[in-house]
Predict the structure.
Amino acid sequence: MKPLNEYDWVDWRRLRPITHRLKTLRYDAISFNYVRRAARAGEKQLQDRIRRGRVLITLAFDDPDAIAMQAQLIGHFVPHAQHLIADTSMNNDAAIEIAAIAAGRGVPYIRLPENPWDRRGRAASRAHGLALNWIWRNLLLPGQPEMFGLLDDDIFPTAPDDPFSVLERQPIYGYCRQIGARWFLGVNFSFYRFDYVRHLPLDFSQDWFNGLDTGGANWDVLFFRLDRRQMEFMPTRFEPYRTGADPVEASIQWCGVWLHELGQTQRGNFPDVAADKRRVVKEMLAPHLAACTAARQLASD
């Protein structure tokens, strides 16, 4: 929640410092209990897979189609990284399919415990942050990788890339989101040097009382320590997914050479637009997926 000196007299009259504190305590209690629950399925001892390595962790959610494309593209364009899929799917059939895709690609897989927040509804960002807190406590802290990156399941590399290289000269990397005087990394494409954050009480939750989306709760423990003016960030831009599409509600995002489909049309319950957007994204990715297939066939000959 905000420091007390940032509440004005209207806030105090409406008892916002008290209600914000009570809601924060509730969210903290839910997170405390959730991160101590066991995974529902997946490989055991994943910590050993990532120890002292460079790991990309995808947060999957009910989208085998995206996972199939992403796993293929990461394996081809970012081969030096250990890719891992952390599945938050609510649909059991989708989770089974995602696990099979991971096994076919040799990608370690784990299915997180059932999330108390519904990722399909208004609490989607809250569920996202809670899942990342589980990953931090149960995979990253015990696994102690050299570096780690957090990805949505609908972000795809379209050319060779090493997003970890920037971490050799600064402790974090990604695209920057600025809200007032505070800033944070968009967690759906963010990278961290483990030795810098290992002793920090990271919290990937929202901090809505300060206007910060998922990951914003790390302002008080991580981002305030860093001079934003001295940091290098991932170049990013947003654009309509096709000519004539709404530039806000139906956009895609480019993070360097990574294409982020963005799921706002799905969350906004516009299935026809979401389906058309996936079709266009597949067309954009088709030549890159073909290059992956050709390289794999060549290697097997």
